[in-house]
Amino acid sequence: VDPGTHRITDANPFMAELLGYTREEFLEKELCRIGLFQNEAACEAAFRELDEKRVFRDDNLAGQTKAGECRTLELVGNLYEEAGRQVIQCNVRDITERRHVEEDRKQLLAREQAARQEAEAANRAKDDFLATVSHELRTPLSPILGWSTLLRNQSLDDATSVRALESIERNAKVQAQLIEDILDVSRIIVGKMSLETRPLELDQIINAAIDTARPAADAKSIQIQTHCDTDVGLISGDPGRLQQVVWNLLSNAVKFTPNGGRVDVWLERLDSDVQITVSDTGQGIGADFLPLIFDRFRQADGTSTRKYGGLGLGLAIVRQIIEMHGGTVRAESRGEGQGATFTVRLPVKGIGDKEDTTPGGGLVFPTVGKVTPFVCPPQIYGLRVLLVDDQPDTLEMLKAALEQCRAEVRTSADVAAALEVFQEWKPDVLVSDIAMPGEDGYALIAKVRTLEQQAGKRTPAIALTAYVRVEDRRRVLQAGYDRFVPKPVEPSELLATLASLVSAE
Predict the structure, then answer these.
(1) pLDDT tens, position by position, 65-87
(2) CATH topology classification for 100-190
């Protein structure tokens, strides 16, 4: 390149081809007008730098070919003397592909860093969650173990003993609900949560949930007001899961509302949807946490000084259940101290829609904070019951409960012993655990039903199990049991199930 005129005096074929020219077209053109530089001002600046420093370098030139194609170029220019005259030599390289590779690498690195940060945040959230789980599971154990020790020492008066027993039962139910929430979240994560839908009236679901939440509300003098439109009609849904949704929303409202506050529950029909609204006068939700309120492993306050207990799973479970019903749930709050409103919308489906009519449907979950009264149904008197469970403590507790209601009880700790008692004693009802070492409850009921086929009779049977998924319940009933009672077993629930089964027979 001539330093005075800036014209190209010589070029190799590659240089011309790079910018889309023939060599003949390329020669005698000005360097500033062949597409190497973005504009003429940039080109003039390069020549000034050459005059001052005798060298110019730019490894990120936005060049353009004769046809208008953009290329990324690297240019090194040197000013030197040759045969008594000054000459500029320019070396140009096309680095477009290299830049693309570098850009792809940067984007990949950015994505990896973002994914790593997200994974680290998720791991921190899980670690915090596990710490919270440990705390929340241990907390109910303190009154359970403490009161148990005092009761064993027989140092309490009658009134205190009653309160001690109520505290043990209440905290055991709290622990059972924590476990159920953890299991529900694990089902959600692996996609195993399922519904058993049937025609239902939502006002009955809401009233049942309110009955469960009312003791906690009464303890804080919180009013629960209902505004239910009784003409919304039937919808198709899972009654147990929908009651769980309403109970979770009510439980949160009561938990975060101060003494003397108020919780309102609305049920109304909006076009083709049914809407449930739970509103409270509680502490509200901060604007920064509101978008995260339905996320798993999230709590507004996860510190050791937090005021409210719980695992922070309830609302994640609520969202999953509602979305599985084809509905939506949203949270609103004007901010801290301004209360919160949760709104659930469910589509009104035709009652003719496909339904799961599996027997024994409906979710069973503990009535947290509510002490269940012990009542002996008259059908239990004189009933011959064979109890089978490999856990001695459970066996002894259930035997005591049944004998208190004047039932005749025999117990066995394994299938072989149970079959001997069954054939010799001929009980009126069989009550058996499912998970046992060696042969399990499924093996027992199969052998019992085989024996009965030969004898031409059928003994009513109840299964006890800590496996409480829908598919577990189906398997129990298909195996030959007539009823299903989840563990931990409440004596009152077992008695009621026995009475119902005997009456049906």
Answers:
(1) 888 888 888 889 999 888 888 89
(2) Helix Hairpins (1.10.287)
